[in-house]
Amino acid sequence: MEHPGAISGIALLAPLTHLEAGAREKAGLLYIRSRLWRWIMAYTVAIPTSLRYARQTLEFIFAPQAVPADYMIDGGGWLGLRPSHFHATSTDFVAVEQDLGRIEERYEEIAMPAGIFFGTADRVIAMRIHGEPMKDRIEGLDFETVEGLGHMPQFVEPDRVIAFIKRIAERTFAGQDLTTASQQFH
């Protein structure tokens, strides 16, 4: 929003796009306003607590699909159980409350190719709140839904997600060789 020249297009997977009442409560222990307490929590009790509830948290996030058997290693799941990840996620939750309302007011300004991909069974980010309203906010939005899919399409339907991203990239770099265009970012 602040630097539209820095990107050429956006392909979003189940994005958080609107402030919701009760969002702070939904964040639970992740919502820590104090930077000091956020750091203390991250480097003391956050990881042992996260480990205790990891299985049920992953099952909720992936539902209604099963958590892939190789997710913790091949999918990077263990990376989410680091103090720095907890700290960053907590920081993001606080920032959402401070910044998202201001960003929401400007969605109509997005003039680049944009797409949003949602599973209709996403229990983490509600499509009716964060997806469907965007159809009227961004001109030419490519809005794709997959019936019965949950919040982790990149692991459950990777080929479909890749096709979605390629479709947005083709719109973004129409008339350019995608190989040449991708080299601009390396």
Give a written overview of the molecule:
The protein is mainly α and 186 residues long. The chain has helices spanning 23-27, 35-42, 46-62, 83-104, 127-130, 153-156, 158-172, 178-183, and strands at residues 10-13, 114-119, 142-146. A 3-stranded parallel sheet has the order 1-2-3, covered by helices on one side. Helix 5 links the parallel strand 2 and strand 3 (142-146). It is globular and about 50 Å long. The model has no long low-confidence stretch (mean pLDDT 92).
Ordered list of secondary-structure elements with their pairings:
Layout: E1 10-13, H1 23-27, H2 35-42, H3 46-62, H4 83-104, E2 114-119, H5 127-130, E3 142-146, H6 153-156, H7 158-172, H8 178-183
Helix pairs in contact: 2-4
